[in-house]
Every structure is written in C-alpha cells, then in structure tokens.
Write a structure and sequence with these properties.
five-stranded mixed beta sheet, binds ligand C2E, binds calcium ion, eight-stranded mixed β-barrel, alpha/beta
Length: 469
C-alpha cells in the first residue's frame, strides 16, 4: 500500500512539475523578459482572433525616438530602466480599460483597443501626457520623445482569409502612421487616414516612374536647370544645378518633394549620379567653349554624403577633361550635424581631389557655428530668408555682417541666395558678400540659355561687372 502511495505521490509531483514547466514555457512564449509585458507574438495572435470574430478594434503603436542615444551615451542599464518605467506607465493606462499591451520591438510598444465606441482620442491624449512627463523626468535633456501611430479596423462582411490579411494591414497602417509621427517635428501622434493612404500610393507611383526616368535615355520629363551665381572678384561664371520634373499628370513637381521621394524609396543615389552625369554632359558638350571659366554647384541629398562620395565624383568628373575643380557640392546642416569626425574625413578626401564644398541654407539650422568651426567649407550660402528681409529688419543686417566677417576670417567665401532687387544687392555688396544668386540676375534657366548668359557676361566683361556695381 505504501508502495502504491509512493508511486502516486511521485506521479503527481511529476505532473505538477510538467504543468509548471508548461506554464513557464507559455509565459516565455507570450512575454517580454525585460518589461514583463506581453510580446509581439501575443499581439499578433490577439489580432488574429479579433479579426476572426470580425470585431472592431484600434491599434496604438508607440515608439521612443532617440532611445538608442541613451543606451549609447548613458548606459544600457539606464536604457533598460527607461524601458521598464515606460512600459509600466503604458500598462497602467491600458489596465484601466482592460486593454492588452505589448512590447513589440526594442523601443516600440503597442496597445490594443478592443472596445467599440471607445473615446480613443481622449485616451490617447491622456496616455501621451502621462508618457511625456514620465520620459521628461528620466531624460531632462529632452532628447528622447514619444511618437504614436494609430490605425483602426472596421468590421466587414468579408471572408475569413481576407480578414487575416486585414489584421496585418491594420498593423502596417499603424506602423506607417508611426513612421510619419517619428519624422514629424510638430506631431507626436498620427492617425492613419484615407489621405495618408492616397499620399502613400501617389509617392509609390511617382517613385516607380522616377526609377524608370533615370534609367532611360530618351525622356523629356526630368531635366536640370541652372541658375547663374555672379562673383564680384573673379571673372568666372558660377551656377547652381536644380532639378525639374514636368509630370504629364501632376504637372510641375516640387523639387524638394521629388528629392524626398527619391530618399524614401532608396533611389537617391541613382538620382544623384544621374544629376552629376547631366552636369558633366553640359560641361563637355554645351559649355566646352568656356573651358574652365564655368563652375557648377550641385545639391547633395542626404544619402549621397557618405564615404563613397569622393570616388563617385571622381568617376563622373575626373575623366579627361577633368572637371573636379569646377564643381562645388552643396550640403545642408542636417547632413553634417551628427557625426563630425566622419563628415570631416569625407570633406578631407574631397579636398584632396580638388572638389569644393558649400554649406547651404545657412542660418536655418541650429548648429551653424559648431559646423563652421569643425568642418572645412569653401563657401557658405546664407539662406534666402535672411536676404529677403534685409532691408526691412535691422537685425538681419547685423546677422549677415557678422557671418561675413566670421567666414572671411575662416577663409570661407560667402554667397547670398535669393537676391531679388538692386537694394538688396547694394546692401550685400556693402556688407562684403562675395557671390550673388537670385532672380535679380536670372531665374534658373536651361543649359542653352545659360550658355547665352555666359557669352553675354564674358563678352561684356566690365559691363557685366556693372550689374553688381
Ligand atoms: P536650394 O538648394 O536652397 O535652392 C535654391 C532655391 O531658391 C531654388 O528653388 C531656386 O529656384 C530658388 N531661388 C533662386 N533665386 C531665388 C530668388 O531670388 N527668390 C526666391 N524666392 N527663390 C529663389 P528650387 O529650384 O525650387 O529648389 C528648392 C530646393 O529643392 C532646393 O533648395 C534644394 O534643396 C532642392 N533641390 C533642387 N534641385 C535639387 C537637386 O538637383 N538635388 C537635390 N539634392 N536637391 C535639389
Ligand atoms: Ca542649394
Ligand atoms: Ca539654399
């Protein structure tokens, strides 16, 4: 009898162990070990079940922007601490309404709103202000911030298979909205909407068309125009190459929008090469008679400014004849901001091959002076917003004057862009600005028109100089 009892005891102990193990396994399978929140698998499963029931729900995706910097600059332990604390706040808010929440990525969380007729916006506002203050108390520098993307699933009478796809779609939509929120400087929360979807489709369509346009030879939609830049010192003629897209359906496409499409769809590098080749072609074919009297400024979009850049420009402009010292690459502050050492290496390599660099849109970013001090630029372009208010706001004159003095002491030439009238020009000359660009001289023109402009300028010589005297 005792034997029987012992066997039973052992068996029940064993099954208890098995039961506990299984429980632990399920726990591991559905939970995030660090924050103890549910994990991505759990969320996906929950979404699937809700879709099967054809129930209405919304997903709130949350992300801590610049979280990585805390890991890098403070410590991983502190980073973990931040994640744990934020997750507790999220859980506390979700628990009030018995909503599920999960950690779905390194610094990404989700809340599943499975109540119909729920006052979503009110909940989101409360959640956001709670998280903002929690984050602020952990990161006084204010570098980290919360972004949210929200998408809603509305029930429909479709077949089951369709519904499963739809649950993925809702998550994708929330993710898409989150990405917009992360990039935005003004909106912390973005709700996925019909407009966002239409805009997304349009961008996708345009990116496909753009890819085609830069790969074929005979096309007329995409082309470069050139805006003269007049120097008061040299008898060279400068210009800035600017892109244009005349679309058969949408008409003229804003160049900044076009560049953002190229950047977002991974086409920026190919587009950059296309632009440079167009410029090289103009040098060798259209402007060959001017020898090295013409110089061209080329705008670089973000992804072009990397270690490959010196090689890339050498391949395109370093042939025979060599045009490397006839180009100026324009970069903006947002590109150089983060990694000064890396940028400075690239700039040094460019300098070695004779390519000059200009800092564009000067005055619109916040790190201006830091960049001037740490990176070697050949030219600085004062943003047109400063030039346009020059004669009505006295402070602008002080600003331009200080920048000119500082730049000259650093051996940097100053270019004023957006010069529209002779009063502006006179003030700029008085302030010591070296080069001028703007509608006062010419709007951006085709390469043939630029040839005429140069001919006139070089032939007239002193007369041309009169333009700025
Ligand atoms: P940006 O580099 O600051 O270019 C100068 C912009 O000022 C050009 O606008 C030019 O047409 C405009 N502008 C010139 N003179 C005047 C003036 O007197 N008054 C006023 N109000 N505006 C003047 P655009 O061509 O529309 O280009 C806008 C921006 O798009 C450029 O700003 C640049 O950031 C970008 N972009 C244009 N072409 C290219 C390109 O080929 N590559 C890259 N990466 N970006 C480009
Ligand atoms: Ca520019
Ligand atoms: Ca500019």
């Amino acid at each position: 009898l005792t034997d029987m009892f012992l066997i039973l005891l052992v068996l029940s102990l064993l099954s208890y162990r098995l039961y506990k193990d299984a429980q632990k396994q399920t726990y591991i399978a559905w939970h995030d070990p660090l924050t103890k929140l549910k994990n991505r698998n759990f969320l996906l499963n929950e979404l699937k079940e809700l879709s099967e029931k054809d129930q209405k729900y919304a997903i709130v995706l949350l992300d801590i922007s610049h979280f990585k910097e805390i890991n890098d600059t403070v410590s991983y332990e502190y980073g973990d601490q931040v994640l744990i604390e934020i997750s507790q706040h999220i859980k506390a808010q979700a628990d009030k309404f018995a909503f599920s929440c999960a950690r779905v990525g390194a610094d990404e969380f989700a809340i599943l709103i499975n109540q119909e007729d729920f006052h979503l916006e009110f909940f989101v506002k409360k959640l956001l202000s709670d998280l903002n203050s929690a984050l602020h108390s952990m990161d006084r520098s204010g570098r980290m911030s919360i972004s949210m993307g929200i998408a809603t699933y509305k029930e429909s009478g479709d077949s089951n298979e369709h519904l499963l796809k739809k649950s993925n779609l809702v998550l994708n939509n929330a993710d898409f909205a989150l990405n917009i929120a992360k990039k935005s400087h003004t909106e912390q929360v973005v709700y996925f909407s019909k407009e966002i979807e239409i805009e997304h489709r349009k961008k996708h369509k345009l990116s496909e068309e753009l890819e085609l346009l830069i790969s074929i030879k005979e096309q007329k939609q995409l082309f470069m125009v050139f805006q003269p830049i007049v120097s008061r010192h040299t008898n060279k003629m400068g210009c800035e190459a600017l892109i244009r897209w005349q679309h058969p359906l949408y008409g003229f496409i804003n160049p900044e929008y076009l560049i953002s499409i190229a950047e977002e769809s991974g086409l920026a590098k190919d587009l950059g090469k296309w632009i440079m080749k167009e410029v090289y072609h103009a040098f060798t074919v259209d402007w060959s008679e001017f020898n090295d009297q013409v110089e061209v400024a080329i705008n670089l979009s973000d992804s072009l400014f990397d270690e490959e850049l010196p090689m890339l420009v050498t391949e395109i402009f370093g042939g025979n004849p060599n045009y490397l010292d006839s180009i100026v690459l324009e970069i903006t502050e947002t590109m150089t901001l983060d990694e000064v050492e890396r940028s400075s290496n690239i700039i040094n390599e460019l300098e070695k091959i004779g390519v000059r660099l200009a800092l564009d849109d000067f005055g619109t970013g916040w790190s201006s002076l830091y960049n001037l001090n740490h990176l070697r630029f050949n030219k600085l372009k004062i943003d047109k917003s400063f030039i346009q208010n020059l004669n009505c706001e006295k402070n602008q004159t002080f600003f331009v004057s200080a920048i000119v003095n500082l730049s000259h002491q650093l051996g940097i030439k100053v270019v004023a862009e957006g010069v529209e009238d002779v009063t502006q020009l006179k003030s700029l000359i008085e302030l010591g600005v070296d080069e001028f660009q703007g509608y006062y001289f010419s709007k951006p023109v085709s390469k043939q028109e630029f040839t005429h402009f140069c001919k006139h300028y070089f032939d007239e010589g002193p007369l041309a100089a009169n333009m700025i005297k």
